[in-house]
Amino acid sequence: MPNQRFDQAKPFVTLALVLAAWLVVPVAVKRFLRASFFELQAPVEVVASHVRDLQDFWSLKARSNNELIEAGRDLARLNAAYEIRLQKDASLRDEIDRLNGLLKLPAPDGYRAEPTRVVRRDFSGWWQQLIIRKGRDYGIIEGSPVIYVGGVVGRVREVHAYTSVVDLISSPGVRIAASLEGDTRPISYQGGLNPTLAPARGTVEYVPVDIFVTPAAPRRLVTSGLGGVFPANLTIGYITRVEPSTDGLFKSGDVQLEPALSALTEVTVLIPQGPAAAAGK
What we know:
It is built from four helices and twelve strands; from the N terminus they run αααββββββββββββα. By secondary structure, it is of the alpha+beta class. Strands 1-2-5-4-3-12 form a six-stranded antiparallel barrel. The protein has a six-stranded antiparallel barrel with strand order 6-7-8-11-10-9.
């Protein structure tokens, strides 16, 4: 009977010994083991991502000619609209350069856009992080802003050889200097505690007391450009509710984030160029 009880308790004893040994392992060794495991796991995830892309390609190949013709027409319209916007953008950049030359201002720090595919989302924290397909091999650095066509995605937290980990703007660890569209006064945005697979939300603080928002009339929240991380006027989300803070000097409220964040397949990393890049290294 004692031997039988010992055999039943043996897995728990082994687990307790492993946990005790892990607790006394130096932090540097833990970090090395974690990074090594991530690097070993990354090729498998990247290959799986390429396989999914190949499946999507062949599913599109199976579509009829009429569907392809309609998609081509829609794409042509989008290309024409983008061409007009690019021309306007070029003229605005020329005007900015001319004014900087007249005022003898230093050229602003720029960004290099690096598009990349999403490898996977961390299901243990659905609204916390995702993994992208590029890393040090493409010059990505920690702290780089990540965006998509709808606005802000998040910020690069970890960079590995072939992949990078991105903290989503819905994560409580992400803070962004923001402002309301059409209003230059600074507001502090922070991610919230979002349940898995639920609509993503964030919070705002230091909202001016003269700002009024209702769910029926939300206000667009954009990046302010302060802090030097995100460029200005990128969409963060929409403020749906505000109420006076405890000090009565400001308001705080909720921000509804874009639903598209839950289905991203491709994002763009903005890699700082110039003095900003040197400061970030």
